[in-house]
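Question (not urgent): is this output format expected?
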Amino acid sequence: MWSSGFKWMFLIIGTTIGAGYASGRELWQFFGHESGLAIALFAFLFSLSCTVVMNVSYKKQSKDYLPVLQVIVGKRLTKIYDVMIFLYLFTTTVVMLAGSGATGQAFYFSYWWGVGFIAVILVLLFMKGINGLLTINQFILPILLLGLLSILLLFTFDQKLALFSHWHEQRNWTAAFPFTALNILPLIAVLGAIGNKIRSRKEVLIAGIGSGVILGVISYIYNNSLIQIAEEILVYEIPLFAILKHYSFGILVFMSVLLWFAIFTTAASGILGIITRIQSRFHAPLWVIALISIIIMLPFTTFGFSTLINYIYPVYGVLNLYVLMRLMLYPMWNKNDNKNPL
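Got this back:
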């Protein structure tokens, strides 16, 4: 039970901590100053949403996100959100591919070398089906989380930053809602693909609560660090590098590798949602669908990493608020839907 719960927890975190989050760009886009309460509220809403989605997925024993989506938004809106989820997975995976290119540029490699490298690894990963992704997550995520948390705490102590000095300033608390909504849609796609592999509701609770707590703690410490370097963020494609400039080249290399792994796990989760949805209609091997999908995505990576995040993420954060509302009020909606199916 515990091992399975942690397996799903790492899948959730791996889906969430991608190029946008791990680089600091996504956190700064939504939070920044006066956001402590917003981050605490995000952690609660995220745990609640993940638990609801996993419960529905477990109950339906789903193999792709469509049955889960029908329960959450109702049959009338399923077609609309089916398209939205697919486009979201497509565009955010493009962001991850672009993030890999941006990470390579930080070490003076060609942008296209970074994009091409992650594309090849993604195709190879899905030659082993879903189990390949789950195995990679269980290995990579503990190292990624410990590495990211360690550098953030090191920066906090070195700069003598106060963690709770601004709790009287919380005017940005509403940012919790679009930020949670942004991150929930891909989780519907990913968790909908593993419903038939969940064996108990205890696994659901471990994964849902654990992921919310971990992401809440890291988000708070990360955002607090970014506030101290707010003026420098404007000149960095990846804000994390503004923190890392204070440390040795070895730490920079280590964290850059971890950043790439964060990009990789989220790209893999995005591809998982896409290919399981497509495979429900076209019975081709997962790696073949992954290869075709990535080839189609490559031209869109030319828009650039920060540009994609600045425009795409806020739009989806607002559009997904209805899904978040349905998840928050799920017991009420579920009761009504059972009486009057949509």
